[in-house]
Amino acid sequence: MAELADLGIASMRSRCSEAEWEARVDLAACYRLIEFYGMADMAANHISARVPGEENAFLINAYGLLYEEITASSLIKINADGEILSAPDFGPDLKYGVNRAGFVIHSAIHQARHELSCVIHTHTWPGMAVSALECGLLPLAQTSMRFVNISYHDYQGVVLDEAEQASLVADLGGNNAMILRNHGLLTVGRTIPEAFNAMHRLELSCKLQLAAMACNSPLNPVPRDVLDKTYMNYQPQTRRPYGVMEWPALLRKLDRIDPSYRL
Q1: Sheet holding 151-153, edge to edge
Q2: Residue 57 pLDDT more than 50?
Q3: Which residues of 56-82 are buried (b: 16+ CB within 10 A; e: fewer)?
Q4: How far is Cα 206 from Cα 231, in angstroms, rounded to an integer?
Q5: pLDDT number for residue 102
Q6: What residues does 3 pair with on adjacent strands?
Q7: Which sequence spans correspond to the domains of the chain?
Q8: Could you give the C-alpha distances from 250 to 124, 197, 202, in angstroms and in order?
Q9: Which fold, 22-41+101-262?
Q10: N or C: which end of the chain has fewer CB within 10 A?
Q11: Which pLDDT tens digit goes with each residue over 9-28?
């Protein structure tokens, strides 16, 4: 079997269905893209994806790998109880498992929102900064108007207690994005490309807000009816699903930079 560069991990392709392998490749690509666009936090944070055709299984990163190291075969498959269903052999020196906080957050959403395939959580400095602002995310420009009705979840400490899962799910509701107060950002999607698209735009929204507020000049308000109309133009029923157009191009970008995510 092919050996992955540097880490010596044997390919998982023969150990999973073709549908799971495709999900693994897309999820590994998502990790690399989060890294490329400056949204990674070393080995912290998580992106998870539901395993197609399996009722109670999703893929998540091995805790200890950098996002730039993650490949299709390095992902760990777990169930909603946190039990490892399959994992690569990391060898005696790399005894990686699954981070508890990642399991608590991601399993809660996967169990409650069966239509979703992907959950992304980040700790970027713009996201954390906006999460600490009492005003939350402001609809200052067209990009952030997409998130006019974004969800919020109050900080309750490091997310290690499964008791917090109910409030996480309730606060997210039917939205595809949520600000974890004093913590960071979270997006979800019916596909991996959709969730990445939401996170990329949410990150841009946070950056533009901080830049505008830093100018110490009055902010230009947009009438509520215009905000509502713009928000509706971004909803699934009025446009094609997010990620469909740009995802193949993003994969081509990664293939030019480093195609090892596919291993």
Answers
A1: 84-86, 76-78, 58-60, 46-50, 118-122, 184-189, 177-180, 151-153
A2: yes
A3: ebbbbbbbebebebbbbbbbbbbbeee
A4: 17
A5: 78
A6: 10
A7: 22-41+101-262
A8: 21, 11, 18
A9: L-fuculose-1-phosphate Aldolase (3.40.225)
A10: N
A11: 889 999 999 999 999 999 99
